[in-house]
Amino acid sequence: TKGFGFIAPDDGGKDVFVHITAVKDAGLHELQDDQPVEFDLIEDERRGRTYAGNIKLA
Fold first, then answer.
1. Which of 31, 48, 51, 57 is the most exposed place for a label (fewest CB within 10 A)?
2. What are the DSSP E strand ranges found in the chain?
3. What percent of the chain has pLDDT over 90?
């Protein structure tokens, strides 16, 4: 495991970066390929990036 990955949105938009800390904060050990989840887009203004947070199983 790399400690990060990407979530592919259902709407076909750009993949969203997700860090293992967001997964663990959701009480999960890891995410599986094609596992449906809900998440919020979090803006990191300092780095100019968007990432997934507040992850929940869908």
1. 48
2. 4-7, 16-19, 37-44, 49-57
3. 91
Cβ neighbours of residue 34 under 8 Å, at least 6 residues apart? none
- Tell which residue, 33, 31, 37, 44, has the closest CA to residue 58: 37
pTM of the model: 0.85
Q: Which domains does the chain have, with CATH numbers?
A: 4-57 (2.40.50)
Q: Which amino acid is at 53?
A: G
* Rg (alpha carbons) of the chain, rounded to whole number: 11
